[in-house]
């Protein structure tokens, strides 16, 4: 029989009156150097994955707050090859059972018929946002990141043809948008947050991006994986 989580083990998004946008910023990592623009070009990204440096991810896992069995999943980190490389992100619909309403990479749980992590990421991206697999050039993977809901996520990095057309799955995806890769790979935009609940301290990053009149609030697992991507490219 599943065990109901203790109050201290509730996911952040389910804490009473919790809004990540309103949690104070404890610090901004502006002292760290941004990834050089030349290192964000397609050929440089391919070369980095072909001959990776010695490095360690900064973030591996979240505090566990689910009794479900761990499940493997993949997300696609889609880098659209525009004149300025852009990262394609989604906003999840608010009725989903996990990570509802949050900014996320397209992706999901691995199916038994999936060949590997990349196949899962491409299949999920096609199902969620209509991104055709043939328009994505997979160049590598980042280390897994485990969420509090016990998804062991493999980020799969792919270069996306800029002429793609998206068709959103309205049940899962409320919106899709792009953020400059240079913005996300600049720690001057990496903000640190923390909150205590029933004596348990939770910490996370956010990377809010102003998209016209809309604030795209990147935080939690998505921000953590982007932070690891920064560490990989800056190593």
Question: How would you characterize this protein structure?
Answer:
The protein has 235 residues and is α+β, with helices and mostly antiparallel strands. It has a single domain (25-234), classed as Nucleoside Triphosphate Pyrophosphohydrolase (Alpha-Beta Complex). The chain is 17% helix and 31% strand. It has 4 helices and 13 strands. It has helices at residues 42-50, 117-129, 181-184, 220-234; strands at residues 25-28, 71-80, 86-92, 103-104, 107-109, 136-141, 145-146, 151-160, 173-180, 191-197, 200-206, 209-211, 214-216. The strands form 3 sheets. Strands 2, 3, 4, 5, 6, 7, 8 and 9 form an 8-stranded mixed sheet that branches. The protein has a 3-stranded antiparallel sheet with strand order 1-10-11. It has a two-stranded antiparallel ribbon with strand order 12-13. A hairpin with a 2-residue loop joins strand 10 (191-197) and strand 11. The longest helix has 15 residues, at 220-234.
Question: What descriptive keywords fit this protein?
Answer:
single chain; 235 residues; alpha+beta; Nucleoside Triphosphate Pyrophosphohydrolase; 8-stranded mixed β-sheet; globular
């Amino acid at each position: 029989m599943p065990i109901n989580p203790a109050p201290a083990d509730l996911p952040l998004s389910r804490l009473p009156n919790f809004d990540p946008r309103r949690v104070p910023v404890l610090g901004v990592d502006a002292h760290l150097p941004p990834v050089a623009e030349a290192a964000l070009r397609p050929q440089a990204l391919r070369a980095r994955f072909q001959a990776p440096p010695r490095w360690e991810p900064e973030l591996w896992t979240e505090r566990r707050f689910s009794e479900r069995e761990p499940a493997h999943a993949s997300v696609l980190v889609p880098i659209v090859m525009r004149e300025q490389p852009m990262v394609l992100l989604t906003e999840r619909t608010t009725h989903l059972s996990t990570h509802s309403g949050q900014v996320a990479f397209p992706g999901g749980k691995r199916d038994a018929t999936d060949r590997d992590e990349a196949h899962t990421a491409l299949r999920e991206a096609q199902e969620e946002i209509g991104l055709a697999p043939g328009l994505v050039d997979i160049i590598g993977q980042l280390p897994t990141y485990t969420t509090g809901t016990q998804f062991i996520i493999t980020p799969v990095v792919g270069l996306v043809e800029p002429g793609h057309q998206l068709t959103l799955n309205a049940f899962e995806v409320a919106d899709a948008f792009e953020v400059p890769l240079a913005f996300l790979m600049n720690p001057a935009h990496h903000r640190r947050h923390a909150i205590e609940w029933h004596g348990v301290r939770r910490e996370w990053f956010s990377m809010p991006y102003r998209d016209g009149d809309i604030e795209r609030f990147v935080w939690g697992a998505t921000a953590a994986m982007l932070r690891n991507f920064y560490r990989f490219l800056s190593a």
